[in-house]
Amino acid sequence: MRQNNLQQPIYSGFTAQSTAQDVIKGIDLSGKIAIVTGGSAGIGLETTKTLASAGATVIVPARDLEKAKKNLSGIENVEIEKMDLIDPNSIDSFAEKFIGTGRKLDLLINNAGIMWVPLRRDSRGIESQLATNYLGQFHLTAKLWEALKKADGARVINVSSYGHQMSPFDFEDPNFENREYQTLIGYGQSKTASNLFAVALDEKARKFNVRAYSLHPGSVFGTDLGREEPIDLFIQIGTHDENGKIKPEVEAQLKTIPQGAATTVWCATTPLLENIGGVYCENCDIAEIDNGQIEHRFDDPSTIRGVQPYSIDKENAERLWKLSEEILRMKFDVE
């Protein structure tokens, strides 16, 4: 395996308890333009608020415009546009409209995602977690490439997850056509893909002064991400009791939404990453590679950390890039 030798903590001074507002202190984003997918709910909404409060113009593409308008009401410097990540035509329309404005794009935050859903396929037959959590990111980033290049210092941030530890990418059967569907495996595969995308994109884009990152936001309390998850899954991994209630000792250790958005904002804005890219981050720092030395317990969120070597491997990343172009029937020429 070939990995980025920069994949190691740099001791940023922030911690798992740091909030998005802690991280943005002293940073002026006036004149910067950001796009935040999923930017009207959960940690995406907190990310939008934080970037806008520092002076950035934030564009939020949303599937449900009315819900987005309601959630983003009263926040200055925010624009709302229509887009559904699982619909390729919708991605094209959104991107074409933005490119047509001639504006640069300083920050693309690929935050939107789904988690632990039943087997569904999109109009192309692609499993929904893979389509939404990864292929939508790849497609959108490709279509916005000219605007990213124009910024001369853009960053692309893929909000991934510790869930990547649940599965490597299955190059032989990514869409569960010949294997039994397991929602955790589908989720894990999609997040591994998101990490690998950051590795490949950074490798190709750095000559244009565009850098890419992936991250785990932490185990966050109060989002609606897990609304479709069967309670049995939570009981199985040890976070909930037999009655389906979250264990108090687990809840006490979960991050708040402002803490959950902190690593996204850190990756997007910290000067510490100016000469570093293609890394997976957590707790406002670069994550440690998990070579089996980290003991993980789902009932102790502080142990849910580290990055699997397979999800930051450069050869896997390049292979996935080519496969993604084949699946989407499009070229992402970073030139």
The biggest beta sheet, please? 8 strands, mixed
**Radius of gyration, CA atoms, in whole angstroms:** 18 Å
Low-confidence stretches: none
- Helix share bin: 25-40%
Q: End-to-end distance, in Å?
A: 26 Å
- Please give the number of β-strands: 8
Number of helices: 12
Strand content: 5-15%
Structural class: alpha/beta
Mean of all residue-level pLDDT scores: 92
List the helices and strands and how they pair.
Blueprint (H helix, E strand, L loop, with lengths): L19 H5 L8 E4 L5 H12 L3 E6 L2 H8 L5 E5 L5 H13 L6 E4 L17 H16 L1 H7 L3 E5 L23 H23 L5 E6 L14 H7 L10 H4 L5 H4 L1 H8 L9 E4 L2 E2 L27 H15 L7
Parallel strand pairs: 1-2, 1-4, 2-3, 4-5, 5-6, 6-7
Antiparallel strand pairs: 7-8
Overall description:
The protein is of the alpha/beta class and 335 residues long. The protein has 12 helices and 8 strands. It has helices at residues 20-24, 42-53, 65-72, 88-100, 128-143, 145-151, 183-205, 231-237, 248-251, 257-260, 262-269, 314-328, and strands spanning 33-36, 57-62, 78-82, 107-110, 155-159, 211-216, 279-282, 285-286. It has an 8-stranded mixed β-sheet, with helices on both faces. Strand 5 (155-159), helix 7 and strand 6 (211-216) form a beta-alpha-beta unit. Helix 4 packs parallel to helix 5 and helix 5 (128-143) packs parallel to helix 7. The chain is globular. The model has no long low-confidence stretch (mean pLDDT 92).
